[in-house]
Amino acid sequence: MTALTGRLKREHATLQCMTEIYCAHHHGPYEGKLCARCDYLLRYAGKRLEKCPYGDKKPTCARCPIHCYKKQQRQQVRVIMRFAGPRMAIRHPWRSLVHFSDRFRRVVHPLEMRRQKKNQGSQAREI
After folding, report:
1. Which of 22, 35, 67, 102 has the fewest CB atoms within 10 Å, i.e. is most exposed?
2. Is residue 33 part of a domain?
3. How far is CA 50 from the centre of its chain?
4. Which domain holds residue 14?
């Protein structure tokens, strides 16, 4: 996995915290590590974040018009977030607050972003 930067890195770290909370409660302690299933899901999420068309302008996954996870992995992440979300406020209050505030970010579909860039380029040529 290449190094994620900015918001993508923060989003991945938040998911990692949530996955650790979920895995420790449901799959037992693995000496500070995740079980194989949760570790696979976290690596999968990292790969998907690398390919996110939004980049640093990425909305939260719940508000994203593009679902880049396969159905099974999306369902697993939903279960993890539903369980770990309320516990995040206690264990990681700042990360929880930032994640909550990200829900209010404006979401523009990548195709719309492409159209806007194209229009800006054509307007610049006209001048």
Report:
1. 67
2. yes
3. 10
4. 6-126
At 33, is the secondary structure helix, strand, or coil? Answer: strand
Q: What's the pLDDT band for 40 if we cut at 50, 70, 90? A: very high
pLDDT at 76: 93
In order of 14, 34, 61, 64, 125, the CA distances from 49 in angstroms are 13, 20, 10, 12, 34
Q: How many domains does the chain have?
A: 1
Tell me which residue of 89, 81, 80 sits closest to 27, measured CA to CA.
Answer: 80
In a domain, 70, yes or no: yes
Q: Domain for residue 1, yes or no?
A: no
- Whole-prediction pTM: 0.74
Classify residue 60: in a domain, yes or no: yes
Contact indicator for 125, 58 with CB cutoff of 8 Å = no
Strands of the chain (E only): list them: none
pLDDT in tens, 58-115: 777 777 777 788 999 999 999 998 998 889 888 888 887 777 766 766 667 767 777 7
